[in-house]
Amino acid sequence: MEVPTKSALKKVLKKGFITVNGVLATTATLLSGDEEIALYIPKKTQTHKKLVFPLTVLFEDRHLAAIHKPAGVLVSGNTFKTIAAALPQNLKPSSLPDATTPQPAHRLDYATTGVLLVGKTGSAIRALNQLFEDKAIQKTYYAITIGTMPPSGTITTAVDDKPAQSVYEVAESVASERFGHLNLVRLHPKTGRRHQLRKHLLSIGNPILGDATYSLENMVLKGKGLYLHAHSLAFTHPFTQEEVLIQDELPQKFTRIFSS
């Protein structure tokens, strides 16, 4: 009688198995008659842990939605707790014929907070992807940066050897004993490169407060997270043709520094 391999044994133990005369049977087992055949069915394993993750919904209709993405959570990926995994429990199912599992239409960094746009139907997901590709969605971010900087400007430093452009305006500045100056900066990325705003601000010598990756020596604020917030998205709704403006107010850690 053929002896199964160790990997094959693991598979059958999960699904159940058959023995012939007390020996594990395989597809190569031959029967001649009068054998003792036994079927073993494993007990049900513990059900998968259910994700309970309430999200703040900023906008929702039959086609799409927008939620507040908190810091310290991946938008999607092979981990248990992601924004994508939590969307079905936080959004109403679409009543449209091509309704599907809600999917994020873009990405925000793990440490970034703010508005995240979501498609609820197949056609909405495709339409939102096209809007982002066509740069037809106006994105506004706020960041707190370190050091003195001009009141406004355009940064065109290449990101990963690709053209990139970010426009900024300093909304307010305060003196800081440790950092010299801290600035509340309004940002308008014109391209969508990975970590674009973080890299651009570092390139002009004004890294984002709390950024441990793109920072200056001895200028990292630990334990407070990244001070970068996706504040608003403005676009023409691809189905109703209405002008949509979705805003997410600044986190408290911003307003503690800049109360106005």
TrEMBL record:
Q: Would the keyword RNA-binding be found if you checked this record's keyword annotation?
A: yes
This protein is called: RluA family pseudouridine synthase
| One Pfam family named in its UniProt record | PseudoU_synth_2
- Assigned EC number: 5.4.99.-
The UniProt record lists the keyword Metal-binding: no
Q: Which InterPro entries match?
A: PsdUridine_synth_cat_dom_sf (IPR020103), PsdUridine_synth_RluA-like_CS (IPR006224), PsdUridine_synth_RsuA/RluA (IPR006145), RluA_PseudoU_synthase (IPR050188)
* Lineage top rank: taxon: Bacteria
Instruction: Give the source species.
Output: Croceitalea rosinachiae
